[in-house]
Write a structure and sequence with these properties.
Residues 1-24 form the signal peptide. By secondary structure, this protein is α+β, with helices and mostly antiparallel strands. The chain is built from 4 helices and 5 strands, in the order H-H-E-E-H-H-E-E-E.
Length: 141
């Protein structure tokens, strides 16, 4: 065989090996992850809206979930950590992978709320993100 054929066979073998499932979360569907998160949220008795963050598969580390709940509304940082750990254990992730869920590796969603549903400082047609990490939203509370 020529070097070119060997190189082609090696590249094909590497690409096939890379596509095989390696970790538990690599082949867990996003819908299953969302379902596990919402089930754990209900089991913990946490009410309020669920803000779920989905990472692209290239941005996540190997063995991590693509979907995580983030602190929002009535879900505190500790609640989000507990829900994510519960969902990860339901999906069969290892203890080391479950321990990787903490508040330092998560987006904290802060809302700008104003009485009567006005968005303070956002303007009428503002995009979702405001000042980098603030989310403009309608809220009638």
């Amino acid at each position: 065989m020529t070097d070119r054929v060997r190189l082609l066979i090696s590249a094909t073998a590497i690409s096939i090996a890379a596509s095989l499932p390696g970790m538990a979360s690599a082949n867990i569907a996003v819908e299953d992850q969302r379902s596990a998160i919402l089930t754990c949220k209900r089991q913990n008795g946490i009410s309020g809206a669920a803000y779920i963050e989905q990472r692209s598969s290239s941005a996540r580390a190997v063995g991590q979930m693509d979907v995580m709940i983030v602190p929002y509304d009535q879900v505190t940082i500790l609640d989000a950590d507990r829900i994510n750990a519960c969902a990860a254990s339901r999906l069969g992730l290892s203890e080391a992978e479950i321990a990787s869920f903490n508040s330092r590796k998560r987006t904290v969603v802060r809302s700008i709320r104003q009485p009567y549903g006005d968005r303070k400082g956002c303007g009428r047609n503002a995009s979702v993100l405001y000042r980098g990490d603030l989310y403009c939203q309608w809220a009638r509370r």
